[in-house]
Amino acid sequence: MTNSTNPTNSYTVPSVSIATAHTGASSKANELGMRTMQERAYAKRGEQYLLIKSPPASGKSRALMFIALDKLHNQDLQQAIVVVPERSIGGSFADEPLSKFGFYWDWQVAPQWNLCNAPGIDEPRVAKTKVEAVRAFLNSPDKILVCTHATFRFAVEELGIEAFDNRLIAIDEFHHVSANPDNKLGGQLSAFISRDKVHLVAMTGSYFRGDSEAVLAPAEESRFETVTYTYYEQLNGYRWLKSLDIGYFFYTGKYVDAVAKVLDPVLKTIVHIPHPAARESLKDKEREVNEIMSALGDWQGVDPATGFHLIKAKDGRTLKVADLVDDSDASRRSKVLNALKDPMQKNNRDNVDVIIALGMAKEGFDWIWCEHALTIGYRSSLTEIVQIIGRATRDAEGKERSRFTNLIAEPMADQAAVAEAVNDMLKAISASLLMEQVLAPRYEFTPKDTGPKEGFIYNGGEGYQSGGTNLGVNETTGQYHVEINGLTTPQSTEATRICKEDLNEVVTSFLQDKTVLERGLFDKENTLPEELTQLRMGKIVRERYPDLSDVDQEAIRQHAIAAMNITQQAKLMLAQTDSSESGALQGSTSLLEGVRKFVNVRELDIDLIDRINPFEAAYAVLAKAMDEKSLRQVQASIAAKKVSIPESEARDLAMRALQFKNERGRLPDINSADVWEKRMAEGVVAFARYRAQAKAAQGESANG
């Protein structure tokens, strides 16, 4: 968002602003009617286990149709079962005349086999009938069934995994699955993989979860062939949408008093109000909806055909507002939902102006005209943030700019629940940093002087420089090739794949770590960058990929830190450049230009990357956005949590000290002027103390 004059008692954080190339490549189809991502996925249609990681609106549903039809017609699979998280998403898999666009077959689902349209909800007391429907489908000659995650879970429990042999199971919104043993769907998928008699296609726009749980166990994930289509590729290839702004808006008082400052009635907007249990909620959702509508203008009544509220705005226009919060009248709610899902209105920009929702209109909700996703209260899941942003990133004629705004209560000096406010603040910064990674181009890092790569233009067209600093850009894919001194090269095929495809998942785990955020943002004076970049990230990588070798784990750690720091330092450098030229931070400038500037002017090596505080830019933004009193409260709350070196960190420091000794022939000196060397030495002392305590405890136990 642009950094305009701040409203009273509120602060705007211009976190991310991305300008796209709007090449139109995302919407261009080949002779089979496939767009870029769909063609990429279809090329791997013969894989038994396929994972498609692609952003909202990139065409995952149709990609699945192409793949499923080939498996049914050419790969001798008996049936295809499409599993979606909620009934409203089932509409994405309705009949499609694919042959009309050049494909070999049409996608057709018999009405009785789209269980998302069947009456009743997915609870055990009514799920029996849907389980029986699944049983009937498995015994029928028909080919395609669509159901919810819940129905599928109940069916597997009732019928057993062997009932699904020789079938394709396609899981939409795959991030709902978890490797946690308590996740039933995740456990069932593990059983399917162990039995190895089905084909699986998993699709998600955000291959990570808000609770830091892994989606799949590493051994199972390695069985999947991955198709990755990045947010950067998707947005860059749009025809109409030219820029996306992501910002955080901190307010004091009641959010309904601040909402008018960020709710622009000219923009097509989805407003997500806070959950009733959330700190920002007024505990009266009907009142909240009414006050939001009052901020838009004067209420004129309800359209009898659609159930939309009619609001006369200050500019004289009549706004149509869909209320998805009020569930007191089932018939009215059904009327509103039907009006929103009416296929005849999909391309009608004037069908509705504002949608106000609570738990709906998130993943899978397709309103191409949405220009502004306004979310009140921080969401507990980074996945949910990514999905909500996806509501505003559909490409539509004449829609050149879109934005996501998160309205969050600012910590106040007299606020009792400061700790909760601090937690929200940290999560907001985490989401902002994550989106910078998701929206940045993909990087490929190699050690110094490994040579140019085909298809890349180096150093702004000046060519590859032997012994120099080299940055290559593939203008077709938007990929960057960066050479770094001292970079560890992954040894195994799996580690190489992770470094090329899954760095965002590693970075996400890092950014979700509250200790990392607290120490990196608010305890910079007492936290060495290496404690975060080496120790904490090293621990995260080891826990995420326990079966990889030490060399591969270190390679992944270095690649992840490099990707995150290049993005953050590029943003900081760009902000400083713009400030010196114009006297103010320019929120509308492209982060990508900052990447070019940063990489071109620095001699990169792994020591430099490890020494950079990865949250420096985020801290600067937060400091600009909050007044001194509030920031002191945040820092005081975090300072209260400080502890001495824990045993696990002391062990990691001791291991780094051993590596230091192998490289330099001596142990780190606790009196060294180098703060990182001193910290390693302190870790050695602390670890020795822990070992002495453990031996003493064993001695007492033996004597006892």
Automatic annotation (TrEMBL):
Keyword Nuclease: no
Superkingdom, natural source: Bacteria
Keywords associated with the record: ATP-binding, Helicase, Hydrolase, Nucleotide-binding
Location of the Helicase ATP-binding domain: 30-235
One term of GO molecular function: ATP binding
Name of the protein this chain belongs to: DEAD/DEAH box helicase
